[in-house]
């Protein structure tokens, strides 16, 4: 089976990393060839990772719309399944696939945003005809989408994204009572790292001394967050590590992942943290509540309530119940979110 995964670019992002990882894993199977079609540039961040893992990348011709259209038509004919992972590519692929009956198209929505403009209603009208299935990575995203586009009911399917377990051996911290908090992601408004800083600022100086915090990532708001975090450093350690590609190193460094995003589809960093044995505290948005169950396998708080997050941090200091949440989170990861489960679901869909 020949599968073509389509992305808007191969720059660093959750959906893009997922596509690279799942393509590499599919290529380990003797009967599957998984390539990637990128509408981005040949020097995008993840291109080298694809080369290192032997994944063939096809780059869209950017010189003219006509040449792009003809290139896409020729390319689509070569694959048994064409899997679109970005709304930015959807119309181009739908248009190029017209009158190609052998082209089986699939579209995964990696976020919870529902497009409702007239333009998108026309695109989804065409999609309802051409797509074999539309895949949702969270049930809440599926429900929201079908309220606007009920015609997709029969073609909609829920498949949770899956990842390989992050191996992050932990040093012996028996005699270390400091709880290491961490955030992983780009410093952009959507990720709202400032909420963690605000929550820590609400603690007493003695309480802050029981924590240290590690930020991983870069982005336009990095310097702003550095300035906002400066007063905290009187009482606690605050480290900005920059962009870190080694996931094992990230999750060896932290005990608790704090996700403060305004919206999420199905957060890959939350899955990574669960698999690595970290507690997850996250905003109750998007698919986050489908990854962790509040007070059962993680902790959730309302966005953008920094006071509620501060109370959850105090809860960590008050008892050791959160260690049981970590164990439950690991078990939930292995039951639902392993990469092999996701790949089996996709290959069954293509068959």
From TrEMBL:
Domain Glycosyl transferase family spans what residues?
Answer: 181-330
According to the record, the segments passing through the membrane are: none
InterPro entries documented for this protein: Glyco_trans_1 (IPR001296), Glyco_trans_4-like_N (IPR028098)
Which EC number(s) does UniProt give?
Answer: 2.4.-.-
Name a GO molecular-function annotation.
glycosyltransferase activity
- UniProt-recorded name of the protein: Glycosyltransferase
Q: Does the keyword Flavoprotein apply?
A: no
Q: Which UniProt keywords apply?
A: Glycosyltransferase, Transferase
Species of origin reads Alkalimonas collagenimarina
Start and end residues of each Glycosyltransferase subfamily 4-like N-terminal domain: 12-163
Question: Which lineage is the organism of this entry classified under, starting from the top rank?
Answer: Bacteria, Pseudomonadati, Pseudomonadota, Gammaproteobacteria, Alkalimonas
Glycosyltransferase: is it a keyword of this entry?
yes
